[in-house]
Amino acid sequence: MTEPTVVVAAALQESGRLLAARRSAPPELAGRWELPGGKVEPGEDPKRALVRELREELGIGAELVAPVPGEWPLKPGYVLRVWTARLLSGRPRPLEDHDELRWLGPDEIWSVDWLDQDVPAVKAVLAAQQP
Ligand code: CDP
């Protein structure tokens, strides 16, 4: 059986807020919100892939902090894995794939229309942060 393609995404956090990104494409996903990230290339290390995606999509340097326990199915043949991350350099801008970014405070997490498949991942991010 072929291994699923891994999609990596970041829970980028600053001052207690979480970065959400609104997709501009493809049409069936446009307008929905996600944790920014993208596909791991064949042979690429997933963590390096995520740092690369954050640079390409948001124009930032980021440091991954910790893996969020869990793996979530996307469309057939794809799985989502998430790391918490922090900004090292730059301010996030929607350079590719997104048309809006929003820093969500603890009371605002569910104020955006997350992609269905990102909902359990966001819940796991929050659960991993409970003291
Ligand atoms: O940027 P790249 O083409 O590598 O990947 P992408 O188009 O951003 O993401 C690949 C697939 O993963 C798409 O079908 C996205 O909808 C999905 N994805 C997701 O469901 N949740 C995320 N947080 C990130 C990507």
TrEMBL record:
Give the protein's cofactors.
Mg(2+)
- Domain Nudix hydrolase as annotated: residue spans: 1-129
What PROSITE patterns does the annotation carry? NUDIX, NUDIX_BOX
Domain of life of the native organism: Bacteria
Query: Which EC number(s) does the record attach to this protein?
Result: 3.6.1.55
Q: Does the keyword Nucleotide-binding apply?
A: no
The cross-references to CDD domains, in alphabetical order and at most eight, read: NUDIX_MutT_NudA_like
Recorded catalytic activity of this chain's protein: 8-oxo-dGTP + H2O = 8-oxo-dGMP + diphosphate + H(+)
One matching Pfam family is NUDIX
Signal sequence, start to end = none
InterPro entries given in the database record: MutT-like, Nudix_hydrolase, NUDIX_hydrolase-like_dom_sf, NUDIX_hydrolase_CS, NUDIX_hydrolase_dom
What are the GO MF terms of this UniProt record?
A: hydrolase activity
Write the record's keywords in alphabetical order, separated by commas. DNA damage, DNA repair, DNA replication, Hydrolase, Magnesium, Metal-binding, Mutator protein
Q: Does the keyword Magnesium apply?
A: yes
Q: Which family does it belong to?
A: Belongs to the Nudix hydrolase family.
Q: Which PANTHER family match?
A: 8-OXO-DGTP DIPHOSPHATASE, NUDIX HYDROLASE FAMILY PROTEIN
Query: What is the name of the protein in this document?
Result: 8-oxo-dGTP diphosphatase
